[in-house]
Amino acid sequence: MRVELDEPKCVASGQCVMAAPEVFDQREEDGVAFVLDERPSADSLEEVREAVAICPAAAIRLVDRFT
Asked: pLDDT digits over 16-26, tens only?
């Protein structure tokens, strides 16, 4: 799976960073999230799915790596 984040949609809530800190971080200047690891390990997928579910801007999605 691959993680995609639509940065312009991000509202800088930091929910993704709290749910999956090894996959997401936030920019210092404006708090907008960015992806640290777009292809997280299988061990991290549950946390990434949580981040997708709780993102208030619906800015994160998981996509099949072959698309």
From this structure: 999 999 999 99
Q: What whole-number distance in Å separates Cα of residue 59 and Cα of residue 39?
A: 17
Among residues 62, 61, 67, 65, the alpha carbon closest in space to that of 9 is found at 61
pTM: 0.91
Q: Which residues are within 8 A (CB) of 64 and not within 5 positions of it... i.e. 6 or more apart?
A: 1, 2
**Any idea which residue has 């800088």 for tokens?**
12
Give backbone dihedrals phi and psi of 62, rounded to 5 degrees, phi first: -100, 130
- What residues contact residue 6 under an 8 Å CB cut-off, 6+ apart? 59, 60
Diameter over CA atoms, the chain = 34
